[in-house]
Amino acid sequence: MNSHRMLELARALAIAKSRQDVPAAMKLFHQDMLLENPAFGTTARGLAANEKALTSFFTSFPDYNVVLQGHAGNDDTLMCWGTVRMTMTGDRFGVVPNGRPAELPVFIQFVFKDDLIAGERFFFDLSALCAQSGVSTDAVRRKLFGEAAASQIAADQNPPAGASRNAASACSPGIEGQ
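and the corresponding structure tokens:
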């Protein structure tokens, strides 16, 4: 697929999602669509799972808006970067947010198949989202990943004095998410 078409699809998806228009987004997805949000630890495969994931996401972030500011790609993959603005609402994450919008840098990796989007990996900083939303990152991690995983992530990100962080801990699941 050529890069112009990939960017056209990515922009169309950004517009649909920024309008919280799930049916329009679904028309851009391949039947085997894989949506990954590492920050939230979520994965959705297939059209039904993606529809459910997007509906749930927009319930939590009803004003979601993404602006794509740049891109790079090859024959079947496109990386986009930009800014997302969204307000955390409800109790999905086990906390009470402050109701203020968060503005975050975002990186999105797209893969394509049969002239449709077949994969999206949505990366953003969960800690920055939590800080701007007035909630505890640790509490949100506990809700998303369970107590043991949240404790390990926190330990990896705050090593004892004199200890070095290893490459695996620097890439813990707390960095992304849709």
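(Above: one complete record from the training split.) The two ends are 25 Å apart (CA to CA).
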